[in-house]
Amino acid sequence: MTDRETMAAAPAAPAAPAAPADEGPRTALVFPGQGAQKAGMGEAWRDTASWALVAEISEYTGVDVDELLLKADDETLRRTDLAQIAVFTTEVLAHREAEAAGLLAGVVACAGHSLGEYTALHAAGAVPLADTARLVAARGRAMRACAEESPGTMAAVVRLGPETVEALVARVQEDGGQVWIANVNAPGAIVLSGTAEAVDRLAELAVESEGKVIRLAVGGAFHSPLMAAAADELRAALAAVDFAPEHTPVVANVDAQSYASGGHWRDLELAQLTSPVRWEESVRTLAGELGCVRFVELGPGRQLTGMIRRIADGALTVPVESAAALAKLITPEP
């Protein structure tokens, strides 16, 4: 049975319980993915109590995370395996500090974009920190090695709707090109993965349709079949982890469905390597099926906040990208 068949056969996750009336609006925690990293990103959390977790994550991953967060330059942080550990660590710090500050009342679901899905699983109580850190490290290593063996790139498509993009992808594939839709992030925000040649060919066709393709500074064709070779190492890492049998619901990238049982996640994360991130649909699941009206983005930047505002009308978005931003949320200026 394939990963997709296994997921299709699995029972639906139970609906999230209603948040108690005294805990505020139904809240979703969301976590960004690779691409949010930047030099010096750890300074935003260096003076917090949670900074002690950096040493723990260094031990679990075999990487000097303190050095990575405080001293690594942008070029170093472009390396897929290091970028993933850096982003994951800052998300964990943001989550711990927001939790300690009492900002996370009313949480009924979590979700993360690509790499961020691993932090979402940890925040949801599905995986302990040590195991999550090891999974992130294994995933990053596997994806980096795969990208070196099967070089590729990613690119954003602007000014074109999904039907047009799908048609252009089909045209390039018919001519033997290797290109796929990798992310559907928000209305008008689609990302492609594929070989450089195929992406360049699609860019030419996009101009004819009055669209534009913008190359992204990434290390491989992520969320496409070109990542298939990364599955073996990740499969072994996932097999070593005991997922909690029950946890706060997490909406999965690959099918935008909510899962509250740890038994699903090995197949879901393997499928995520080569499947598109259905972020727009995931946000609609959070806002619709799960009734979330408040979205707390935990981690560097505000990438997801901008997307969510374009997807869910009236959603309250709360970005927590630094200790200073958190302090302002807790004690607003008069």
Report on the architecture of this protein.
There is one protein chain. Helix 13 (303-311) links the parallel strand 9 (294-298) and strand 10 (316-320). The longest helix has 21 residues, at 80-100. The termini are far apart. The radius of gyration is 19 Å and the shape is globular. It has helices spanning 3-9, 52-61, 65-70, 74-77, 80-100, 116-123, 129-149, 162-174, 196-208, 231-239, 265-274, 279-287, 303-311, 323-330, and strands at 27-31, 107-112, 153-158, 179-186, 189-194, 212-216, 250-251, 258-259, 294-298, 316-320. The model is unreliable at 1-22 (pLDDT under 50). It is an alpha/beta fold and 334 residues long. It contains 14 helices and 10 strands. The strands form 3 sheets. It has a 4-stranded parallel beta sheet. A 4-stranded antiparallel beta sheet has the order 4-5-3-6. A two-stranded antiparallel ribbon has the order 7-8. The chain has 2 domains: 3-14 and 23-148 and 224-330, Malonyl-Coenzyme A Acyl Carrier Protein, domain 2 (3-Layer(aba) Sandwich); 153-216, Alpha-Beta Plaits (2-Layer Sandwich), CATH 3.30.70.
